[in-house]
Design goal:
The protein is mainly α. The protein is built from four helices and two strands. It has one domain: Orthogonal Bundle (Arc Repressor Mutant, subunit A), CATH 1.10.10. Strands 1-2 form a two-stranded antiparallel ribbon.
Length: about 110
């Protein structure tokens, strides 16, 4: 079993710190304390943190906070940030009306 995900190991109890109110994810307004608390509540991977708190899911898609979140999680777990798997990410998408695809297909037919 991967020692990072060995949930039976004790990481200690959550103790608040003076800088816990520091804003880490500006888009979703998530603080350092919320991230630290989530780790102590059992969210040990970046994907779990992302799903639980929505870090990295705002307008910037984690461009400003992902490294900070990774560092905080690693520190709480007592491991190197390089040992954490990156969070699952998806490209930003917008719905497209079917008529756009139809117009593209029509243009291709006319070009041939």
């Amino acid at each position: 079993m991967n020692s990072i995900n060995d949930r039976s190991r004790d990481i200690g109890e959550f103790k608040s710190m003076p800088d816990d109110d520091m804003l880490i994810c500006r888009c979703e307004e998530i603080t350092k304390g919320e991230i630290r608390k989530a780790v102590h509540d059992g969210m040990w991977t970046l994907t779990e943190i992302r799903r639980y708190l929505r870090t990295g899911m705002g307008l910037c898609q984690g461009q400003t906070c992902s490294k900070l979140v990774k560092g905080i999680v690693a520190r709480e777990l007592g491991i190197s940030p390089a040992e954490l798997e990156p969070a699952t990410s998806r490209v930003p998408m917008r719905p497209i009306e079917m008529k756009v695809f139809a117009n593209e297909a029509e243009k291709l037919k006319e070009a041939n």
